[in-house]
Amino acid sequence: MTMLRLTLLALALSLTACSGSDAPAETEEAPAEEAPEAAVEEAPEAAADEAPKADTAAEAPATKAPKGDTDFPEFAPTGKEVNQPLDQSVSLVQFGSLKNGEVEVTGKFTAIGGGANIDPTDLRTARGELDIDFQAVASGDVARDKNIAETFFLSATPNALHGNVQLTNFRPEKQTVKVGETIKADATLSVNMGIEISNVNVSMTLQRLGENRWEFALVDGFTLSIDNLGLGERLKTLMALCDHKSVADEVKATGKLVFGI
Fold it and tell me: Is the pTM of the predicted complex or chain greater than 0.85?
């Protein structure tokens, strides 16, 4: 699925047994009997010592794999995927953050695009992409929108930020759904706003609106750190410009994306 161009405002690897004999040993019966016994005893010990090492080596990838819940099954494309464009007229990407520790500022990005590749017979192979134009911000305050776009996202400069969100792994509770049916799913996203943050795990619902029309809705959204995105200094500049005492480092993104016709 080539889904989601999500952004919000701001919008983590890891893994000999030797036997010697001398001349006396050949003539003395006791040593001759002990020599084979030592060989017999050492052989199993060597095997026993090496067996756990082999097991440990085999288990190493399994212990290193879950780097932040990344050890999910991968399903190769079936070849039956259909590319479905994003319907911008009904899709929505929203963001929210706290100002001065108590007032929640919410808004949405009004210029988004993207697409998804979906095979109705195996939804596990779905992949998608979302692109966001940060110049188009709507928070209910025109002056604030301008400051966010120009000061935080540098929309009027060659260094203007653009948001890109990719659906890299999709884990629906059912492999197929009927028209009109809604199911739950978990998914993994890759979010890029100049700095890429991979393995963002989210919960969502998927509704099949028509034969080739799908709605992906974030249930609880997901939260990103402005500092982790490398935008801490821009946030400070924005705070000074707007005379804010504080703005939360975390920004939460929610929304729904409709693909197809």
Answer: no
Q: CA geometry: angle at 111 spanning 107 and 117, to 5°? A: 110
Mean pLDDT in consecutive groups of 10 residues from the start of the chain, 261 residues: 35 34 41 44 44 38 37 82 95 84 82 96 96 92 89 78 92 97 97 87 97 94 85 82 73 94 84
Q: How far apart are CA 184 and CA 173, in angstroms?
A: 6
| Cβ 11 vs Cβ 153: under 8 Å | no
Residues 6+ apart with CB under 8 A from 162: 7, 131, 132, 133, 134, 193
| Maximum CA extent, the chain | 105
The amino acid at residue 150 is E
User: Considering only the top CATH level, what class is 82-260?
Assistant: mainly beta
Parse the chain into domains and list their residue ranges.
Answer: 82-260
- Spell 206-244 as b/e; 16+ CB within 10 A means b: bbbbeeebbbbebeebbbbebeebebeebbeebbeeeee
The string of DSSP codes covering 144-182 is HHHHIIIIIS-TTSTT--EEEEEEEEEEESSS---TT-E
